[in-house]
Fold this protein.
Amino acid sequence: MYSFTNDYSEGAHPRILQAMMEANLTQNTGYSLDAHTSRAVQLIREEIRCPQADVHITVGGTQTNLLVISAALRPYQAVISAATGHINVHETGAIEATGHKVLAMEATDGKLTPALIQKALDIHTDEHMVQPKMVYISNTTEVGTQYTKAELEAVSRICRQKGLCLFMDGARLGSALTSPANDLTLADIASLTDAFYIGGTKNGALFGEAVVILREELKPDFRFMIKQRGAMMAKGWLLGIQFEELFQNNLFYDLASHANAMAQNLRDAITACGFPFASDSQTNQLFPIFPDELIRELGKDFTFEMNSRVDDTHSCIRLVTSWATTEEGVSQFVQALRRNAQLYKD
Amino acid sequence: MYSFTNDYSEGAHPRILQAMMEANLTQNTGYSLDAHTSRAVQLIREEIRCPQADVHITVGGTQTNLLVISAALRPYQAVISAATGHINVHETGAIEATGHKVLAMEATDGKLTPALIQKALDIHTDEHMVQPKMVYISNTTEVGTQYTKAELEAVSRICRQKGLCLFMDGARLGSALTSPANDLTLADIASLTDAFYIGGTKNGALFGEAVVILREELKPDFRFMIKQRGAMMAKGWLLGIQFEELFQNNLFYDLASHANAMAQNLRDAITACGFPFASDSQTNQLFPIFPDELIRELGKDFTFEMNSRVDDTHSCIRLVTSWATTEEGVSQFVQALRRNAQLYKD
Amino acid sequence: MYSFTNDYSEGAHPRILQAMMEANLTQNTGYSLDAHTSRAVQLIREEIRCPQADVHITVGGTQTNLLVISAALRPYQAVISAATGHINVHETGAIEATGHKVLAMEATDGKLTPALIQKALDIHTDEHMVQPKMVYISNTTEVGTQYTKAELEAVSRICRQKGLCLFMDGARLGSALTSPANDLTLADIASLTDAFYIGGTKNGALFGEAVVILREELKPDFRFMIKQRGAMMAKGWLLGIQFEELFQNNLFYDLASHANAMAQNLRDAITACGFPFASDSQTNQLFPIFPDELIRELGKDFTFEMNSRVDDTHSCIRLVTSWATTEEGVSQFVQALRRNAQLYKD
Amino acid sequence: MYSFTNDYSEGAHPRILQAMMEANLTQNTGYSLDAHTSRAVQLIREEIRCPQADVHITVGGTQTNLLVISAALRPYQAVISAATGHINVHETGAIEATGHKVLAMEATDGKLTPALIQKALDIHTDEHMVQPKMVYISNTTEVGTQYTKAELEAVSRICRQKGLCLFMDGARLGSALTSPANDLTLADIASLTDAFYIGGTKNGALFGEAVVILREELKPDFRFMIKQRGAMMAKGWLLGIQFEELFQNNLFYDLASHANAMAQNLRDAITACGFPFASDSQTNQLFPIFPDELIRELGKDFTFEMNSRVDDTHSCIRLVTSWATTEEGVSQFVQALRRNAQLYKD
C-alpha cells in the first residue's frame, strides 16, 4: 500500500535528522532561548526581508492558530474565515475554546475576497453581535488553491482600511510559494499581513511551525501566550534546528517543489484520463472526481481520503503529495489509474 | 411617537408591580431561597405537569442561554442552531465565550428540522471536528414562526435517538402558546425537551426567565453555574414574585393573547392593503415588506426596526406588539398605513 | 425572627419603587439607551467630578466584577486580591471562568497595601508565571474595614508606578463613605482608581451597580462585554431610574448613614457588654466574637451568619444592617444581648 | 560551563534517536493512530498491570496538565494543589485559562496530605464557592521530595471517600520510582490514582508524556480534548517510538537511576562539606543552601537556577541532574565545591 493520505506520513528530511543527531548531547538553554532558535529566527527574518519581525516556533498548526488568534482578539471579537477554513472545520472548536466566534463565509475555491470580508462587516453592526476584528486565510487553502499577489493585496488593503488584523495560515505555504501559479514571495507576505506562519510539519520537518508577527501590538508578551496554552517546548532548540536547516541552502523551497512536481504528475495523468477536479489546484493537494468503482479499485493499492460524494456514482477524493513522496509511488498510481480508467469510465 | 420596536419597551403588568410593592419591606432569604420563589416553582411544575422538574429563575435571555448550554456541554461539544438563532446572531458570541461552537444551519422560517439536525451530525464525524451534542430551538423563532406539536415531536425524536440534548429558548413562549396556529402546551414541551425556559421579560414581567430542567444529568449543581456566571440575584424573591403572579389566574396566557391579538390586527390591515410578509407569523412579531417611501412615512409617527433590504425600493421591517401594546397605538398605525398605502403602492 | 443576615433582605426604598411605578407604562428605549439612564449617568458624573467618565449600570456584583476584570486583562494576566476578597472566595470561580488567575495575598483586615502588591510583583518574574496587571480592592472590605484616603493614595501610587489597573469593588461603598472613619469622597475615588463601582443592591435599590470607568483603554466597546456576559438588561431603564433616585437629594448617602447608625448601636452595645470583635469595623458589617451558648440563645429570635470558629467555646458571627434595618429590630437585639450576656459570659 | 540548570538541556538517549532514524521514511498513519503508538500503549499497560487503562501520549507537561484537568472538571469545579504545585506557579495560569480555579494549599515539602485536602473541602461549602473536585499531586514534587506508598494510599483513600479525582503529575516520575526512598511501583500508582502521566521529556526522550487514564468517566472522547487544545501531533508516531524504546529493556528506569546516582554524588559532597538543604530530596533535584560568595564562585563554571534568598548572605540554589549528566560534570562540580567550601564557609 502506498499512501497519498496526507503530507505528514513520513518523518523528516535526512539533513534535518542529521542536524538533530549532531546537536543531541550538547547542552542547550531550554524554552527556545537557545542559539539554534536565534539563528533560525535570523534566517527567517532575512528571507522575509523584515529584520524587526518577531518569530516564534511552535509545534503544530492548531496550536499556532489558537495562539495567534486568541492573542490578537479581545473577548467579544471574532475572526472571519472561509467556511472551508481549517479553524472553522478541523480544529475541534479550538478557537471557540479560547472564547472567540469564527465567522464562516461561504467562499469560492476556499479563498476570502474583499467582498466577502465587507459582507461580514456589514452584518455585524452593533454590540448585540460579535465584532469582526481579524481575517484568517490559508495559503494554500484547504482545497489546494492559492492566493495570487493581486488577491492578497486586495485582501490586505481592505483589512488595513477597516482595522482588521490579517493572519495567514501557512501550514502548506511551501507548496503555495513553489507552485507554477505562484507570484508571491515570503517578503510579499510579510509586507501584506499582520502575522503568518511557515509550516514545517508538512514540508520536511518532524514538526514545527514558524510564527511571524509583524504588527507591533501583537508582539509584546507572546511568550506568555505560548506558555499558557501549553505550547512552549522544553527542548525548544529542536524546533530551532529544524528551521535552521529548512532555511539554509534552499531546503524549504526544494522540498516543496518536489511535492508539487509529484502532484503535477498525478494531475497530468488524471487530466489525460479525462477526469475532472473539484478545485483547480496546482499545489500538493488534488481533488479529482472519480467513479466510485474506480475509487474502490485504486483503494486496493493506495490510501487516500474520501472528500465528498458528488453524485450517486461519483465521489471526490483527496490525493496529497509531500517532500517524501517517491516517483515510484506516483508512477504506480498513474499506471493503476490508466489501467482502470477505461473499465470504470462512464 | 408610538413604538413597535420591541416587546420590552414598558415595565410590568400592574398586578406584578403591586405584588412587589406589597412584599417590599418583608425580610426575605436571599439568592432565590425564599418562599415566593418556592411557590413560583411549584406553580410552574403544576402547569407543566412535571413535579420532578428543576426550575430556576434568571434575569435575562442571553444569560439563560449561556447558562444552560455551558452546563450541558463538555468542552469539545457544540450546539446546533438555525442560522437565524438568537445565540448565533444576537448574543455577541456569548456561547463561544463559554468555549463552545454554535453549528449554524441554514433553515427555512427559522426552524430546525430532523433533516437539518441529521445533516449537522453527518458532517461531524471524528475528533478533528466538534461533537454536536445539543440542539437549540426558539419558540417563537426569531422570525415570528412557531413549532407545531408534530414538528417538535419530530425534533425531539431525533434528539433522543442520537443522544442530543434538546433545549428550547422560550423568550417569546407565551406568544407561541397563545397563537391561533398553536397546538402545543407547556406540558407537551416539558415532555419533549430536556430543558426550556419560559420568558417573563417579554410577557409582562419587569424581567425574569424561568428555566425548566427536565434531564436528570443537567440538574445537579446548576446553582453553582448560576452563581459563577454572575446570574444569581441577591434579591432573588423579586424573580419569584413575578412568576407567582404570571402563573396565577392565567396572567401569563392572558398577556400573551393580548399581544397576539394586537399583532393580528396589524397583520389583517397589512394584508388588506396588499403587502406581503417575509415570514408567516401568527405571533407578536410581524415582518411586512413595504415600499421604502411608505416606511419613511410611517417612521414619522412610529418606531420599528429595519429588518433587511428586499430590493432597490422595498425593505422588510419588524413590528412587535406586547402585553402593553394599546388598541389605540395599533389603530393609529392601521390608519396611517391605509392613508399612505395607496400613495406609495407600486 | 428579625434578620441581620445581610443587607439585601428587603426590597427598595419607597422613593425608588415610586419612581418605577410612575414610569411603568411609558415606552422606553431598551438596553440602557434611555433617558433615565442618561440622567443617572449625568448625576454620577457630577457627583464624582469627572465629566469624561464612562458609567454603565449592571444588575449585580459578581457580574460587575467579572465584566471589569475580563475587559481589562489579556489572557495571561492576573488580578491581585486580598485572600479574603469577594472574587477570591465567594464568586464560585467567576474570574477564573473568564480565564484569569486571582493572585490571593494574605492581608490584615482585608486590605491590600503597597507592600503586598509589591510582593505579588516580586514573585512573578517571567513568562512561566502569570503577569499581575490589575489590583482588586473592596471598600468596605469583606470584613467591614475601609480604606483611608492615605491608604488608597498609597495603593494608587504603586499601581500607577507599576502599570497596574486599580479596580475598587464598591458593593458597600455607601457604607464606607458615610462611616465616621471615612475621609474619602467619590471624587477622590474617581481620581485614584481606574475603575470602581457604586453598589445599589445593598443600599436601597432593588438591584443595580453603577460601574465607573476612568481609564481610557478600558472604555471602548464595554457594551460588547456587557452583552456577551449576559449582563445587558432589556429594560435597562429600570437600572437608570434607581440610580436617578439614589443620586438625587442625597438618598444614596442618607440610606447608608442609616445602616451605619444601626450598626453603631449594635457595636456600642456589644462593646458595653465586653465582647470583642474579629475586625475593627465602623461600617454596616460587624464581626463580634461571642460564646457559643450566647449565639445559640440569640439565634432563637434573630438570624445572622456564622463567620468562623474562634476556639472550642467561642465563634465569630456576622451582623449586617441596611437602609431598611429598623430601630426596633436593633433595640430588640440589644436587649436580648444584655439579657443573656451575663448568663453566658466566661 | 556545565549546566545543572534542568533536566532538559540535552536531546534524547541514542537508542531513541536510532529508532526514530530507522522509522523515518516508513509511511505511518497520522495523529497517533499508528503501530508504534499502539505498541507503546501496550507496553505501558503491561508495566502498570492495567490492561483496561487508556493511554495517550502528548508533547509536554503543561499541555498534559491542562488537558487532564479541563477534561475532568465541570465549569464551576476546582483542583486542589500544593501551593508549590507546578500548575499553581509555573504554568502561566494555564489551568485558569481553561476556566478552573486552582485551590492552593500551603504544604510541607511540597506534598498534599489528607488533612490539607480535608481543609480545602471544609472551607468550600456551598454554591457561592467553587467545588473542589480534583486533587493534583506531583511525584517527584517541585521541591524534589516524593510520596511514599503509605502517603499515596492515604491521599487516594480520602479522594475516593469524598468523590475527588486524583491526578498525579509525573514529569519526574522516573526519578521518583528509582530513588532509594521509593516504595511505589507504576502498578501501585495505577491502582491508587484516577489519572497520571509518565514523563518522557525529562527522562531520555526528546519530548513526550504518557497520560494514563484509569477512571472510566474520564476516558470517553479524550482525543477530542487533545485535538481541541492543539496537543494532537500530526506525526504522532514520533511519540509512540520514544515510549516504545523507554519501556523496552528497562530504559526508562535505567535512565532515571543514572540521574539519581549523579544527584546522590552531588548530595554526598554537599553534605560532606557541611551545607544544609532546603528540602530532603533523594531524587534528581537538589536544593542546597550556600553562602552567596560560594554561589558566585560556582557560577563561574556551572549554570544552575537561583531558588530563593535564605538570609542576607545565603541563598538556596537548584541543582538538577538528568539521564545525560556526565560523571565528569559532577566530578568537576564536586571539586569546585570542595575547593571553595573552606574559603567561603561561615
Summary: The interface with chain C takes residues 70-71, 74-76, 98-99, 127-128, 130-131, 221, 223-228, 232 of chain A (CB under 8 Å). Chain A is about 40% helix and 20% strand. Residues 251-272 of chain A form the longest helix (22 residues).
